[in-house]
Amino acid sequence: MGIILFxxxxxxxxxxxxxxxxxxxxxxxxxxxAWKQIDVQLKRRHDLIPNLVNTVKGSMNFEKDTLDAVVSxxxxxxxxxxxxxxxxxxxxxxxxxxxxxxxxxVMERYPDLKSSQNVRDLQEELSSTENKIAFARQFYNDxxxxxxxxxxxxxxxxxxxxAKAEIAELWEIEDKAERAVPTVDLSLQKPQG
Amino acid sequence: MTAGLNLFEQQAxxxxxxxxxxxxxxxxxxxxxxxxxxxxxxxxxxxxxGQVPYHFPWIGGVVTVVAAITTWVSWRKGPQQVLWxxxxxxxxxxxxxxxKQFVDVVEEMAVATGLPKPKVYVIDDPDPNAFxxxxxxxxxxxxxxxxxxxxxxxxxxxxxxxHEMGHVRNFDVRLMTLIAALVGVIVVLSNGMGRLLRGGxxxxxxxxxxxxxxxxxxxxxxxxxVFVLWVITLILAPFISRVMAMAVSRDREYLADATxxxxxxxxxxxxxxxxxxxxxxxxxxxxxxxxxxxCIADPLGRDVNSREGRLADLLATxxxxxxxxxxxxxxxxxxxxxxxxxxxx
Lengths: 193, 345
What we know:
CATH class of chain A: Mainly Alpha
Largest sheet of chain A: none
Order of helices and strands of chain A: HHHHHHH
Strand content of chain A: under 5%
Number of helices of chain B: 11
Low-confidence stretches of chain A: 177-193
Order of helices and strands of chain B: HHEHEEEHHHHHHHH
Number of strands of chain A: 0
Oligomer: heterodimer
Strand order of the largest sheet of chain B: 1-2-4-3
Shape of chain A: rod-shaped
Largest sheet of chain B: 4 strands, mixed
Distance between the termini of chain B: 27 Å
Low-confidence stretches of chain B: 209-213
């Protein structure tokens, strides 16, 4: 009788162990995948910027500083994306978002630029990519929070070491930059009519 | 009431309701199939005074087989049929700036949900409307009319697409495809059995009472009551099943509004999109009744959808627009309060 009870307890424990371990691994992979999705969108933005700069350069000779700021913010972002951690990448990409936002505001002053179909398409492409970055970030933060919560909760935290689970860093942005984003959105509103 | 609940509580509540509605649908089906058998069985029991030989429930059996096959076929073909009936064309390479923006916004929402990008369809119709269909996220399709693309700005279009993506993520598209299939089956069954009954009516009544002079009273009365109830449900079945489908659809609209707001974190944009759609209330001529329950706003421009009250609760496919807008504005207010952005603060 005692042996049967002992065996039942052992089996239940093993089943729980397998379930908790596999659950953690699944969450870990989801987190990694969500991070890769941000990366895809960041790369897309890096690829689009030279296009935009070349297109507007001719008409915007007087705004050399703004254009230079975008170009250098882009190369800094690419560099920290290649070697830095979550925090550095987040900071560099936020700076790039700010520089782009400034450029879009300045572009509003050039009516011939605004009416050009090419520029309009590029602007739509870039603002869509900006949105995708924001949404990918939101999705990553949600998934990572779920992963972090699970590995800290009892009793799953007992298996966390076994599954080599580590706290995933969230992609946070500074308050200042967050406020700058709506300005970009406003400048990109579809012209009526 | 429910307006005070947060997004996650609303989602949980709506999921529970859906399970209850599905259970009701299945019970209704079972009654349609096996109710007739029960009446026959009771009648046989009355004749033989309880000594009933083995009685195979053949009405229930036939109904189950027919229902299973028909449901399966419309389950597989349903989404394509809906798109075909509205004359939607798939957008692979955008032809205009509006279409490009639409495709971009759908991609954004796919990123926000972490789901594969649904197929994008456009319907050439000046009335603003949109719907989502499919069996699961990988097979999902999102369609919008050219009128919708024309009147909404980017943020509002994003909000509407987020609403549709909410239908996809919450598996509403699956539920609505399934329900459309079930309603179709019930209509077919009701018509078919009605014809059988009219043809073999004399025989059916004969089984119930003809030789029943010597039958025992209570059992025969029970048989008659069950039979009459069964015939009445058979006649009302198409109507009842539509009402049930509409109730499921109404709940799903609130849930999709909530999910859309959760995805964009911008409930205000959806509220203003709904306001714009409402002011263009002309019927969407390309969307027929069969797809009405899928749309963001009732395409038929029926009055019941703008009213509240018992009758409207029964017949509308959508909750009253004013209620939806009020709820969304409430969410926007809560969001601003949480962020400390209230003008008075």
